[in-house]
Design goal:
Blueprint: E1 2-5, E2 10-12, E3 17-18, H1 19-26, H2 28-33, E4 34-39, E5 42-44, E6 49-50, E7 54-60, H3 64-85, E8 90-91, E9 96-97, E10 100-106, H4 112-128, E11 132-136, H5 139-148, H6 152-160, E12 168-172, E13 175-178, E14 192-202, E15 211-220, H7 223-239, H8 241-247, E16 251-252, E17 263-264, H9 266-285, E18 289-290, E19 296-298, H10 299-305, H11 307-310, E20 317-318, E21 329-331, H12 336-343, E22 355-364, E23 380-390, H13 395-413, E24 419-425, H14 438-455, E25 459-463, E26 472-478, E27 484-493, H15 496-499, E28 504-505, E29 511-512, E30 515-524, H16 525-536, E31 549-553, H17 559-571, E32 576-578, H18 585-594, E33 599-603, H19 605-610, E34 612-617, E35 621-627, H20 628-640
Parallel strand pairs: 1-7, 18-22, 24-25, 31-32, 31-33
Antiparallel strand pairs: 1-2, 3-6, 4-5, 4-7, 8-10, 9-10, 10-15, 11-12, 12-13, 14-15, 16-17, 19-21, 20-21, 22-23, 23-30, 24-26, 26-27, 27-30, 28-29, 33-34, 34-35
Helix pairs in contact: 3-4, 5-6, 8-16
The structure holds zinc ion (2 copies).
Length: 653
């Protein structure tokens, strides 16, 4: 057989060889570093025996897929160590993830001291250097094997595997796990790892199931890579919106209100209000008409839109479907059908199109509580939603207009450098998930590619991520921990106009179907706020700040002058407060700095006499005395132009 390697060179063998043997044949060094392989583009275990011609790429921890194998092996070592120290712990699952790996156990929760002890045991296991061996068992034997070991979660996992699944196990020393692999050849290959945290997690992410104890960890090929990563994580923690946003009193959550239902505190609400006013005005400037439609509708609406069939689990349903004569409602998961009925209120001609409808929409999605996270995974959120009803000949221009608006939002917020564009396409092997047939999809997907190429944005294609009614352009960003989320989406829809019988009368007098573009401009406000918290580590551009200026009187004697300054600032639309506490001025300054305020105005005898303010800013430090009107002019301009001023470096303070 002939093996074609990554660099194009070829190896010839006269009989079957395992991938590991081929790696050894290439070089001992490669065999030592190898963690997995790709055979004809498919990730395989090093133990896989190759019998036919193929393209082979040996993976090391320098490759994301190779690194995943290293981390997954480390999760097995973690499980072995936990079983040694806590023989009663039950094993659930232990995959590799973007930032490392985790393992879930049925056990008491783990403290940091516990993690340290487990790490120590893991080092021992790695030093013992047991080889990992793979074996397969038929279904009934596999179940009996895990029953005998007293691992009920593994038994459940095996029972859920499809009838024809190959059921494989990996052993190292006394430890065996149900696992599809791939894995390193020996635990000795783990050179640098760390257990990072522990938390609770529901079995299968479902709150109806038992709460398990999860241990997170990470592993790298080399010690210095690990240390670099841990340093980054420390930095990330300081920016984590779920912590910083609470510390800064932007939002809070309350158990009795519910998970995924954050309270926006006055400061967070102020920021969202600022963005909302800006976006609504901007959309109006761009020819949008605003709608305000109900937060719920009868079930009948969702039956027409197909949500009742495709998305019922994701909706909050009000009323008992089983009860005779009961009217069943559901909270809306999106605004589309409501705006279609706005369109349908009067007959439309080709001259009426495009119709651009925008709405600041509050939406509800009934997601698993196990998935809830800060402001980014929530059950109720508000989104800058919009639908454009367009003639086929207007699709490109209108789509371009949506992209242009999204880019304008990102640029203004200073986020444009942090995003990537994804074109989400249908899964060709699963077309029954979508409306319409493959030919129609080919046409629309090609249309979409052409438009994007004309606009000139760089994008990657992702199959299987399209909406059921059409392809999407998703604008993606990563959070501080590297986890990716969709921030803005623009979708082309060629089916729902038919479903809702939307038409327009064309030039030739014929009734025709419009296209619909579903889009967001700034996206979901809560998620955007989270993104801004992490991007700016709480030091927001002045125009977004809930408190732009704080007046700090040196003593009570100057409260009257301070109040005059405050009134003038507020009269000019500046968000200002005054610190009237009987604290020392140094203390007040320190607190204002910790609150990450853009400006402090210190007022005392000199300032009052000369009608000036002593300005301290986040950008230049002590700016000295300024005439009050001059200061107001400058900050108003900064707010109006949404300027993002350069922050002072640490040394400059
Ligand atoms: Zn495994
Ligand atoms: Zn929509």
């Amino acid at each position: 057989m002939i093996i074609t390697l990554k660099d194009g060179s070829k190896k010839e063998y006269d009989g079957a060889r395992s991938i590991f043997e081929i790696a050894q044949d290439i070089s001992e060094g490669l065999a030592r570093a190898a963690t997995a392989a790709e055979v004809n583009g498919e990730v395989k275990d090093l133990r896989t025996v190759i019998e036919d011609d193929c393209e082979l790429s040996i993976l090391t921890a320098n490759d994301p897929k190779g690194l995943a194998a290293l981390r997954h092996t480390t999760s097995h070592v973690l499980a072995e160590a936990v079983k040694r120290l806590y023989p009663n712990a039950k094993l659930a699952i232990g995959p590799s993830i973007d930032t490392g790996f985790y393992y879930d156990f049925e056990s008491d929760s783990f403290s940091r001291e516990d993690l340290d002890a487990i790490e120590k045991e893991m080092k021992k296991i790695i030093k013992e250097g047991a080889k990992l061996e793979r074996f397969e068992l038929p279904r009934e034997k596999a179940i009996a094997f895990m029953e005998e070991k007293g691992e009920p979660y593994k038994v459940e996992l095996i029972r859920d595997l499809p009838e024809d699944a190959i059921i494989s196990f990996y052993s190292q020393g006394e430890f065996t796990d149900l696992c599809a692999g791939p894995h390193l050849m020996s635990t000795k290959g783990i050179k640098a790892f760390k257990l990072t945290s522990s938390s609770g997690a529901y079995w299968r992410g479902n709150e109806k199931n038992k709460m398990l104890a999860r241990i997170y960890g990470t592993a790298f090929a080399k010690k210095d890579e690990l240390n670099e990563h841990l340093k980054q994580m420390e930095e990330a923690k300081k920016r984590d919106h779920n912590k910083l946003g609470r510390d800064m009193e932007l939002f809070a959550t309350v158990d009795v209100i519910g998970q995924g239902l954050p309270l926006l505190m006055p400061k967070g609400a102020s920021m969202i209000q600022t963005m909302q006013r800006w976006i609504e005005d901007e959309e109006e400037r761009r020819g949008y008409m605003r709608t305000k439609t109900p937060l719920m509708a009868k079930k009948d609406l969702y039956v027409i839109s197909d949500h009742w069939d495709h998305y019922k689990e994701g909706m909050f349903v009000l009323g008992d479907e089983e009860k005779e004569g009961e009217e069943v409602f559901a909270l809306r998961p999106m605004t589309c059908p409501f705006q279609y009925y706005v369109y349908k209120q009067s007959p439309k001609s080709y001259r009426d199109l495009p119709c651009r409808y925008g709405e600041t929409s509050t939406l509800f999605r009934n997601e698993d509580s196990g998935e809830m996270h800060g402001l980014t995974r929530v059950r109720q959120f508000t989104i800058s939603e919009g639908h454009l009803v367009v003639r086929p000949d207007q699709v490109e221009d209108e789509f371009r207009g949506c992209v242009d608006l999204a880019k304008y939002c990102l640029e203004t917020l200073g986020l444009e450098g942090d995003v990537t564009y994804e074109l989400s396409l249908a899964d060709p092997d699963n077309m029954d998930k979508y409306l319409g047939n493959r030919e129609l999809w080919d046409e629309v997907e090609n249309n979409m590619r052409q438009i994007l190429n004309h606009i000139g944005i760089k994008y990657t294609e992702v199959t299987g991520e399209a909406a059921f009614y059409g392809p999407k352009l998703d604008i993606q960003a990563k959070n501080v921990y590297g986890k990716q989320d969709t921030m803005i989406t623009i979708q082309l829809d060629m089916f729902l106009a038919e479903r809702f019988d939307m038409t327009f009368v064309d030039k030739d007098g014929e009734k025709k179907r419009p296209y619909i573009i579903h889009r967001t401009s700034i996206g979901c406000y809560e998620r955007t706020l989270a993104w801004l918290i992490e991007k700016y580590a709480g030091k927001f551009p002045t125009w977004l700040c809930p408190e732009q200026v704080r007046i700090l009187p040196i003593s009570e004697k100057f409260h009257d002058y301070g109040a005059k300054v405050l009134e003038k600032l507020r009269a000019n639309g500046i968000k200002a407060t005054m610190d009237e506490r009987a604290e020392k001025i140094g203390y007040k300054i320190r607190e204002a700095r910790l609150a990450k305020l853009p400006y402090m105005l210190v007022v005392g005898a000199q300032e009052e006499e000369q009608n000036v303010v002593a300005v301290r800013s986040r950008f230049l430090g002590d700016e000295g005395q300024k005439n009050l009107d001059e200061f107001i002019d400058a900050i108003c301009k900064e707010i109006r132009t949404k300027e993002i001023r350069q922050e002072m470096t640490e040394e400059g303070k």
